Amino acid sequence: MSKRNQDDAPEVRLFTDGGCSGNPGPGGWAFILNHPATGKNLEKSGAEKETTNNRMELTAVIRGLETLRRPATVQLISDSVYVGRGLSEWLPKWKANGWRRRERNRWAELKNEDLWRRLDTLLAKHDVQFVHVRGHSGHLENERCDTLAVAAYQKYL
User: Fold this and answer.
1) Count of domains in the chain?
2) Is residue 3 part of a domain?
3) Which one from 48, 57, 127, 141 is the annotated catalytic residue?
4) 39 assigned to active site
5) Active-site choice (48, 79, 127, 141)
6) CATH number, position 133
7) Among candidates 17, 48, 21, 19, which has minimal Cα distance to 31?
8) What is the chain written as a DSSP string?
9) For the chain, what is the mean pLDDT?
10) Catalytic residue among 11, 18, 27, 132
11) Catalytic-residue membership of 136
């Protein structure tokens, strides 16, 4: 995650969720981008016919960050432990190890490498702080993202 000083960058909150019907199976992603200073929200969602839950979680974050037109200070709020641990623990190690991970004392292919690389590029532009929320716990924006993601993949069922 970026540590750049962006005092004049806008503060935004990015709520994300992704999910699948089966894993792999039809999947959807969604985000809500909130600009607290203006109170404006932007909601977007999409789907893929055959994917995984983790790919949809990453896609939601990527699509949300891609929406930003200039560098921003972003509070990323998600129920995805995979995204949170990836950002804080795994990503720096993967990059240092040539985008590989250790598995039983040998190098293994990195799952979802294409998405992690895209996310890494976006993280270089923005100052992102991850906040974990428990899924399906009544968190308004997280529940809304879940509803949007599920609705998005319904066309593939």
Assistant:
1) 1
2) no
3) 57
4) no
5) 79
6) 3.30.420.10
7) 17
8) ------TTSPEEEEEEEEEESSSSEEEEEEEEEEETTTTEEEEEEEEEEEE-HHHHHHHHHHHHHHH-SS--EEEEEES-HHHHHIIIIIHHHHHHTTSEEEETTEEEEPTTHHHHHHHHHHHTTSEEEEEE--TTS--HHHHHHHHHHHHHHGGG-
9) 93
10) 18
11) yes
Render pLDDT for 30-45 as a digit per residue (tens, 0 to 9). Answer: 999 999 999 999 999 9
Name the least confident of 7-11, 119-123, 124-128: 7-11
Residue 127 a catalytic site member: no
* Residue 146 is among the residues annotated as catalytic for this protein: yes
Catalytic site includes residue 17: yes
Would you say residue 5 lies in a domain? no
CB 26 within 8 A of CB 156: yes
Full residue range of the structural domain in which residue 117 is found:
11-156
The terminus-to-terminus CA distance of the chain in angstroms comes to 36
**Nearest alpha carbon to residue 3 among 146, 156, 131, 125:** 125
| 76 contacts 130 by C-beta, under 8 angstroms | yes
The answer as to whether 1 is a domain residue is: no
Q: For residue 8, name the pLDDT band (cuts at 50, 70, 90).
A: low
* Per-residue pLDDT, 10: 60
